Amino acid sequence: MFGPRGDSILAHGYQGAFHHWTYNQDKANWQHVVTVSGHFDSVEDMVWDRRGGNFLLSCSLDETVRLHAPWVSTTREVLWYEIARPQIHGYELNCIAMVNRYQYTSGGNEKVVRVFDAPDNFVENFCNLCAIDMQKEKTSQDSKTRPVGASVPALGLSNKAIFTGGVLDMMADLEIKPGENEQYADNVFTNVTLTAPPSEEHLLQNTLWPEVQKLYGHGYEIFALDCDPDGKILASACKATRD
């Protein structure tokens, strides 16, 4: 729908995500505007980060994990926004637990616990948006071995780490040329520096966290996860075989 003066457009996508554009008179084009976002199905679990409560992770039956944090700006009121979507999955997610500042685990109806690490691009954008000293964050984690981002292979459920500028750069290094009729997955990571909360397209494409491990053992749907304060012991529970 158009705004009353015809200089703004509000739309929503297939999964309920909002898109907002305004017309820039000086540049004579339409520009994306920060808008609200969030889960479109029941939220099953939430957890704060392990140091200072600077961000909040939530998982949902909409098969996503979303990261919410305050956008700190000198020109506007401090408000919380979705700044990353670390996991876009193929199963409903029921529980989540933080292991350390930049690592979390999730469990759902697929009976597998998955472990995710924050990529370098997320740490940079998190510091930019939340006015956090990036040097302290860099020294607290081994950023030399941290991947820059992640992407999901076609027909896959695991977020694969990317250590270069993106999938297309990796293809160029390997001298792989796309065919005329080939279409690569929409989730092709691009290293982007954010100055405002990301749009829906950016959340889907550039804010995934790499999956670093799978934990097996349960025979039924997982419904609870927890980690000790030192991040050394992880406990999980699944549905029983009988009532």
Please report the number of helical segments: 4
What is the element string, with H for helices and E for strands? EEEEEEEEEEHHEEHHEEE
pLDDT < 50 stretches: 170-176
Q: What is the gyration radius calculated from CA atoms?
A: 19 Å
Mean pLDDT: 85
The main pleated sheet reads as: 4 strands, antiparallel
Number of domains: 2
What structural category do the secondary elements indicate? mainly beta
Strand order of the largest sheet: 4-5-6-7
Distance between the termini: 50 Å
How does the overall form come out from the CA principal axes? globular
**Relative strand content:** 35-45%
Helix content: 10-25%
The count of β-strands is 15
Organism: Dreissena polymorpha
Protein name: Elongator complex protein 2
Pathway: tRNA modification; 5-methoxycarbonylmethyl-2-thiouridine-tRNA biosynthesis
Pfam families: WD40
